[in-house]
Amino acid sequence: MRLLPFVAGLALLAGCAPTQSAPAGGGGDDKTGTVRVWLFDEANRAPKDAAVKEAITEFKAAHAGVEVDVQWVPVEGRADKFSGAFNDPANAPDVAEFGNTDVSSYAATGALADLTGDLAAWPEGKDLIPTVLDTAKSGGQTYGLPWYTGIRALYYRTDVFTELGLKPPSTLSELTDTARRIRAAKPDLYGISVGGKYTYAMLPFLWANGGELAQEQGGKWTSTVTGEQAKSGVTQYANLLKDDICPPAQCANLTGTQSVTAFAGGKAGMTIGGDFNRKAVEQGAVKGKYAVVPIPGTTAGSIAPAFAGGNLLGVFKASKHRSLALEFVELLGGAKYQEKMYTAMGNLPTLSSVQQKLAANEEFLKPFVDTLKAGTKFVPATPAWSKIDSQNVLPTAVQQIATGGKDPSAALADAAAAMDKAFG
Amino acid sequence: MVTLQEAPSVTAPARRPRRKGDGRAAALYLAPAGILLAALLAYPIYQLVLISFYDYGQPQAAGNAPLVFLGFANYADLLSQAQFWTVLGKTVGFAAACVAGSLVVGTGLAVLASRVRSLPRMLLFLAALGAWSTPAIAGSYVWLFLFDTDFGLVNEVLSGIGLPFEHHSWTFGTLGAFGLVAAEVIWCSFPFVLVTMYAGIKGVPDEVLEAASLDGASVWRTTWTIVLPMVRPLLMIATVQSIIWDFKVFTQIYVMTNGGGVAGRNLVLNVYAYQQAFAGQEYGLGSAIGVVMTLLLLSVTGLYVRAQRRSAAWL
C-alpha cells in the first residue's frame, strides 16, 4: 500500500495526457501486394459477394502480382471496427465502404484520403449526380465515391389492396387512414410496419410537413425540431405506432430492417423500404404480391422529400497502395459494376447514365427515381450527427410520443436540447 | 456471534520480530502478482481517470485533433443530467431485485440439495451448472424466444390454459421488461449462490447438529440459531459478489430490451454509458461514467473484503 502513491506519482510524471495515436501518415503507392477491402455485410450477401468477386477477378487480370482481400463488416458493429482502423492506421484497410451519414465524423479523424481531385479526373466522375456527390463531402472535400443511393419509398401489398378496394395513398394523412383500414379489416396485419427506431422513415414525414432537423448559421448548427411544422411531422409519424395501425407493444422498438422484415414476412399491409431492400422482400412471403410508390407528401400529387442515404467507397489515407486502391474503387463504383450491383441487390446507381438506362427498363426503379427527382434531403453534415444517431435522440422522442410517455412538445424539446449539446 | 468474539484475536495478531531480508523476500514473492496487477489494473484505471478529465473523442484518439483539458467538466455534465440519476436509480432497484432473487432461489435450492438423495441432487446441480455455463448472449436470446409475443412457448402455454396472454408483449412495459430480464439474470446467477451455500451447509459439523437435536431443538430452531450463523460469512460473500455482478449487467439488458427498451426506459448504467459515450465516441464522458461506477463498486468491494476477513476468522 505504501508503494501506491509512489507508483501513481511516477505514472503522473511519465505523462499527464491520455495516449493518442500518431496522425495517419501519407501511406505509399506500391504497385503490387494485397489491397485490403472492407465491405458491409448484408442480410443476404451471396449476390453482392458474387458481383464483387467478378470485379476482383477483372482487377487481378489487369494487375499482375496484386491480391484483393475482402472483409465483411457487420453494419451494427461498424463503429468499433472503424474506430480500430482510425486508432491504428497500420491495420486499416486500403478501401472501405461506409454510409454517407458517417462521412463527417470519419473525416474529422483525418484517416480518409481526400478524393476530390481524383474523382474530378475520373472520366466517369462527371456522370455522378451532383446532389448525390454532395453527400460524400465534408468541409468542401470529397471523401468517397458514391457507390449507390438509398432512397426509401412506400411498399404495399397489391393483393390486400385489391381485396379491400384500396388505392395507394396520395397524401400522408391518407396513408394513415389506409393503414388504419387495413388493420381494421385484417387484425393480424400491421396497417403499416414502421418502427420507433426507424429514423429514416420518420424524416420524410418531418420534411413533408415543412420541418427541418437543424439549421446552420456561421458554421454553427442549431436544432429546429421544436418548430411547429417539424412537430406535426414527427407526431404524424408517431401516430402510426398506435394499436389500430402498428401496436406500440410490437412496433415501438422496431428498426428499419425489422420493419421491412415484418412486411416481407407477410405481417403488414405496407412498409417504408429502400431500393436496397428489394432482395429481402423478394425472398419473403410477399414475392409477386407487392408494388412500390413514392411516399406521398401533404398534398395530393406531391412526393415527400426522401432522405438521400447511400454508401460510398473511400480510400484510407494510410493506404500503402493508393493508386491501386483508387483504381479498385473506380472499377467497383464504375458504370459496369453499378449495373451489376443493381441486378444483384437492387441498389440504385449514382451515375446518371446508368440510372436513366435502368429506370427506362425497370419498372421497380421508377418510384425511387421519381422520389429522387422530386428532391431529397440530408441529415446535418456535421460529425455531431453520428453522435445524435447513436444516442437514439430522435427515436427516443418518437417512442415517447407514441407511447404517451411525453407530449410532443416536451419530447421534442428534450431531443432539441440533446441535439444542440452534440452540435456543441 | 461466535465470529464477533473471535475477531479481536485476528485483527491483532502477535507480532514476530522482523528479520532483515524478510522484506526483500516478500517483495520478490509479490512481484509477479504486482506486475500483473499494475499492467492489467492500475494502468487502465490510470488511463480511464486521465481520459475522464479531457474532451476525448474519436478525432482525439486518432491523433487528428488537439487534446483539451476539461478538469471536472465531464463529471459536472454527467451529474447534472436528470437521466443519469433516473438510470442510476433504476440500476440500483434492478440490481437489488436480481440479488434478492438469486439469493432466495440459490439458498432455497441449496437447502433442498442438502436434503435430497444423490441422484436428484446430481440432476439439480447439472441443471444449475448448465444455466451457469450458458453464455449471456445465448441465454438472453433463448429467453427472448421463449417469451416471444407471437411464437413464444410461454404465451402459448399461458393462453392454452385460459389466461389472457395471447400476443402479450413481455418486453414492452417498463416493469415487465425489467422483470423478464431480472428473471434471466437470476437464472444464470443463482447457481453460484447454490454452490456456495451448499458448501456452507455441508460444512456445518454433524456433531453440532447432533448435539442440538439431542438437546431437543426443532428443525426451525436449528436452522436459525446454528446453521445460519455458521454460514453467514459465506452468505455475505455471495451477497456482495452478486451485488457487484448485477450492478454491472450489460448483455442481458442490451439484447433483451433492444438496447434499453422503448424510449430508453429500461436503461441500466452500463448500457447508458455505452449508448451515451462509447457508441457516440465521447470517450471522455464514458470514462467519467466508468470512474463513477468504479467508485460505487469499490465501496461495495470494501464490504466484501471485510466479509472475507470475518470468514477467515470463522475458518
Biggest sheet layout of chain B = 2 strands, antiparallel
- What is the CATH T-level topology of chain B? MetI-like fold
Give me the Rg of chain B, rounded: 24 Å
Largest interface: A-B, 41 and 37 residues
Computed CA radius of gyration of chain A, to the nearest angstrom: 23 Å
Most strands sheet of chain A = 5 strands, mixed
From the N-terminal CA to the C-terminal CA of chain A, the straight-line distance is 42 Å
Discrete helix count of chain B: 14
What is the topology, as strand order, of the major beta sheet of chain B? 1-2
Number of strands of chain B: 2
**What oligomeric state do the depicted chains represent?**
heterodimer
Summed up, the domain count of chain B is: 1
Looking at the overall shape, the CATH architecture of chain B is Orthogonal Bundle
- Mean pLDDT of chain A comes to 89
Low-confidence stretches of chain A: none
Q: What percent strand of chain B?
A: under 5%
Unreliable parts of chain B: 1-12
Q: What's the CATH H-level homologous superfamily of chain B?
A: MetI-like
Spatially, the strands of the biggest sheet of chain A line up as: 2-1-3-13-6
Q: Helical residue percent of chain A? A: 40-55%
> Average pLDDT of chain B, to the nearest integer?
86
